[in-house]
Amino acid sequence: MADRIRPRLLLVAGALATLVARAGPALAHAFLDHADPRVGSTVSSPPAVLTLAFTEPIEAAFSRVEVRDAAGKRIETGPLEHPAPATITVSLPGLASGRYTVTWAVVSADTHPSEGHFAFVVKER
Q1: Termini Cα distance of the chain
Q2: Under 8 Å between Cβ of 104 and 65
Q3: CB 3.0–4.6 Å: which of 55, 88, 89, 120 could bond 37 by disulfide?
């Protein structure tokens, strides 16, 4: 009987050891969760503010946001603001109709950098 129980105990012990040895959750990078205007959207009127919300808190001092028009010309924005731990905003001038590309780079609170870009369109008036 002990010969039949022993393999089962080894199997259960092995399964438990595997569960215990599994790595815990890794510290993630701060990725863009959502934006306003939304990624890829077409808006009917020019937005006054660009808001970027991330998946985890970020360090605003090490973050940047750049907006360019369809010709690649940089749009002057207001200073970067940090109204919530995982959110940054910049004010926008009166944008003309057209396509705009937003490029962002942030450093998460746990020091991992991430960056990306997206576009939105201001509908012709």
Answers
A1: 84
A2: yes
A3: 120
